[in-house]
Specification:
about 220 residues; mainly alpha; about 65% helix; globular
Length: about 220
């Protein structure tokens, strides 16, 4: 047995050394082409997926109420219900009027005012905003939109709407008054005083503007 081991140990050792030399990662061997019969590693194929077609979603009208009675004069029904004192039903009918005519200005005004009476200020603000879009040169819808936004406790948006109203009509005292109110809510007293002083300058008979100006003076210790 010992003779066999000695006889085969030298060839085995040489074979192992030869294999190690062949697998050494030197620059020359690492860039050599693969031998025949050996499958070279191929990078994975890049596939591009075609995005699925997205079906556009229908625009939801936050103001309109869907109905299946197109022959009914819903705006007239709204006015009749309002006269009878049923403000909630009147609001619903005015919103049904908008289902067929989303930009009906009489219906929009009705929704805006009736929603405010019901303390549904989000509906009111939306209706006034749509009217403001239809009448970009009219300050009044933006002022009313700002008032509704103040009721929603959104003074930043209210101030932006009111400031736009002052740019449309620089002589509108109520626009400056609403800016002042928004500043008061944000406790920006110095800016509130500036806006409210402009409001009373434009309309000395504006009692609410005087009242809010006095309040702003008190909060800044200008008691006199």
């Amino acid at each position: 047995v010992s003779v066999l081991i000695r006889r085969f140990s030298m060839p085995v050792a040489l074979a192992l050394l030869t294999q190690c030399a062949c697998t050494e990662h030197s620059p020359a061997t690492s860039m050599a082409a693969p031998e025949k019969g050996i499958i070279a590693h191929q990078p994975p194929a890049i596939t591009t997926s075609v995005p699925e077609e997205v079906t556009p979603q229908p625009t939801i009208d936050l103001l309109a109420l869907e109905h299946d009675s197109p022959s009914v004069d819903h705006l007239a029904a709204s006015q009749s219900l309002k006269a009878s004192g049923d403000v909630a039903a009147a609001l619903d009918e005015a919103r049904r009027a908008l289902y067929a005519s989303p930009n009906d200005e009489d219906a929009l005004v009705a929704v805006a005012r009736l929603a405010s009476k019901q303390k549904k200020f989000a509906l009111s603000a939306e209706a006034w905003d749509r009217l403001a879009t239809l009448h970009a040169d009219d300050a009044m819808p933006r002022i009313e939109n700002a008032r509704a936004l103040l009721a929603l406790k959104k003074p930043e948006l209210a101030m932006a709407a009111a400031m736009l109203a002052t740019q449309i009509d620089a002589e509108n005292a109520e626009a400056f008054h609403v800016v002042g109110r928004a500043r008061i809510v944000q406790e920006q007293w110095a800016q509130a005083i500036v806006a409210l002083k402009q409001a009373v300058l434009l309309n000395p008979q504006h009692g609410w503007a005087h009242n809010n100006l006095g309040f702003a003076y008190l909060r800044t210790n200008q008691n006199d």
